[in-house]
Amino acid sequence: QVQLVESGGGLVQAGGSLRLSCAASGRTFRIDAMGWFRQAPGKEREFVAAISWTGGGTIYADSVKGRFTISKDNAKNTVYLQMNVLKLEDTAVYYCAATFTFSGALIRLGLQSEYEYWGQGTQVTVSS
């Protein structure tokens, strides 16, 4: 199993930046890919970004392309989400997720069903 702990959330003004971190522990050598999802109040959880653990390939939701960047530090078993030019609609609880069974098709990392492990989430609030 893998345990995931997110950090870095907080309150930021629109146009500002935040960097989220997700530290993995446990059987981290089995991680194939990790992703970020978010859930706004009253809405379903949605995909944000994902990264392949070995190849480093990335995929983003259209709503964050050009503003958010996902990266990883394999030595630290940590994935990051750099969020720039934040908008009010980015307000949500952000969750990281990990999978041991990445098929190689990046597009599938946009599906919640692809992930076996989830963190508890970190709140991001963007104010005007």
Structure description:
It contains no helices and eleven strands. It has strands at 2-7, 10-13, 18-26, 33-39, 46-52, 58-60, 68-73, 78-83, 92-99, 117-118, 122-127. Strands 2, 4, 5, 6, 9, 10 and 11 form a seven-stranded mixed sheet that branches. A four-stranded antiparallel sheet has the order 1-3-8-7, with no helix packed on it. The radius of gyration is 14 Å and the shape is globular. The N and C termini lie far apart (40 Å).
Short structural summary:
By secondary structure, the chain is mainly β. 0% of the residues lie in helices and 50% in strands. The model has no long low-confidence stretch (mean pLDDT 96).
Q: What is the C-alpha radius of gyration, as a whole number of Å?
A: 14 Å
The shape is globular
Please indicate the percent range of residues in DSSP E strands (runs of 2 or more).
over 45%
Report the total helices: 0
How would you sum up the major sheet? 7 strands, mixed
Parts with pLDDT < 50 across at least 5 consecutive residues: none
How confident overall, as mean pLDDT? 96
Fraction in helix? under 10%
The total count of strands amounts to: 11
What's the end-to-end separation, in Å? 40 Å
What structural category characterises the helix and strand content? mainly beta
Describe the structure using short key phrases.
single chain, mainly beta, four-stranded antiparallel sheet
